[in-house]
């Protein structure tokens, strides 16, 4: 794999939609276009809106999930700039695709299009009529036959009003597609350095471990298997949970991807992330 470094030129265009949304769409001239989308162009004091980082990739190109990749690096949010009192929650990642390269390299990737979401709480004392700029510095790795490092500053403007404006359909669809917490039909057992996952009636199970999960030592050979059971070999400290996305196939078709969290020390926060606040 050849890795080069590319600094992407960023073009900004101000968009004012008739719905009342005001935003800045950031595009690149490379193989990946990055756009920051606000769910609501008008936000309510004390309310929560959602921002979405939309990655559009040209054919054959991909970016990486925030999981236990062998080589790929996920997008990094190098700087978060929020107005005073605005609070940023935890990033919410869509389900990736498992990709095995020559030499037994295992990565988890996004192709074509992917949107990463993050909730933002508006301060209760925000004044109606105010306009605020929310921005991120984003760095990511984009790969096809070779890999490049790219970066961009993206920003979106929102206006404070008595009631939130209409929701952007792209955010709504991305939220609906996020993996839900596993239900009672997903049976997970963690014992020492082993874990088993069982889903009655499944024709294939695929487990994709997140960052912050115990290491899955047999992810390449044992991370996906035909049938209704997976057996995982675990590394790392037992205080960490086993957490990640589980794709479930029935009759040879993918029916859902759910989020699994099991084991770990009692009371340990699975993500361990506190909301970030804009500086006063």
* Main β-sheet description: 5 strands, mixed
What is the gyration radius calculated from CA atoms?
Answer: 20 Å
Estimated structural class:
mainly beta
User: Helix and strand succession?
Assistant: EEEEEEEEEEEEEEHEEEEHEEEEE
Could you explain the architecture of this structure?
The chain has two helices and 23 strands. It is globular and about 55 Å long. Strands 1, 5, 8, 13 and 14 form a five-stranded mixed β-sheet that branches. A five-stranded antiparallel β-sheet has the order 4-6-12-9-23. The chain is mostly beta strands and about 280 residues long.
Quickly list its features.
23 strands; disordered N terminus; mainly beta
Q: What would a concise description of this structure say?
A:
With 280 residues, the chain is mainly beta.
SSE inventory with pairings:
Layout: E1 2-5, E2 10-16, E3 22-28, E4 32-38, E5 42-43, E6 48-57, E7 62-64, E8 76-81, E9 87-88, E10 97-101, E11 105-111, E12 113-121, E13 131-143, E14 146-160, H1 169-177, E15 180-181, E16 186-191, E17 194-199, E18 204-209, H2 219-222, E19 224-226, E20 229-233, E21 242-250, E22 253-262, E23 276-277
Parallel strand pairs: 1-14, 5-14, 15-22
Antiparallel strand pairs: 2-3, 4-6, 6-12, 7-11, 8-13, 9-12, 9-23, 10-11, 13-14, 16-17, 17-20, 18-19, 18-21, 21-22
């Amino acid at each position: 794999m050849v890795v080069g470094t590319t600094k992407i030129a960023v073009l900004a265009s101000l968009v004012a939609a008739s719905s009342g949304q005001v935003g800045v769409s950031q595009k690149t001239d490379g193989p990946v276009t990055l756009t920051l989308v606000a769910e609501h162009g008008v936000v309510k004091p004390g309310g929560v809106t959602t921002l979405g980082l939309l990655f559009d990739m040209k054919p054959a190109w991909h970016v990486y999930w925030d999981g236990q990749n062998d080589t790929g690096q996920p997008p990094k949010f190098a700087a978060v700039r929020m107005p005073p009192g605005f609070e940023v929650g935890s990033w919410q990642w869509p389900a990736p695709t498992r990709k095995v390269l020559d030499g037994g390299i295992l990565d988890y990737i996004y192709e074509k299009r992917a949107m990463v979401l993050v909730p933002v709480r508006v301060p209760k004392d925000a004044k109606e009529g105010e306009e605020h700029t929310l921005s991120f510095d984003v760095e990511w790795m984009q790969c096809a036959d070779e890999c490049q490092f790219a970066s961009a500053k993206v920003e979106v403007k929102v206006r404070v009003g008595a009631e939130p404006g209409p929701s952007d359909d792209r955010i709504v669809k991305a939220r609906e597609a996020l993996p839900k917490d596993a239900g009672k039909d997903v049976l997970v057992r963690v014992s020492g350095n082993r874990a088993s996952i069982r889903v009655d009636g499944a024709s294939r199970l695929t487990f994709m471990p997140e960052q912050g999960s115990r290491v899955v030592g047999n992810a390449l050979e044992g991370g996906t298997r035909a049938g209704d059971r997976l057996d995982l070999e675990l590394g790392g400290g037992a205080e960490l949970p086993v957490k990640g996305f589980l794709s479930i196939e029935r009759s040879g078709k993918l029916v859902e991807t759910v989020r699994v969290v099991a084991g770990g020390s009692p009371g340990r926060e699975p993500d361990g992330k506190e909301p970030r606040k804009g500086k006063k």
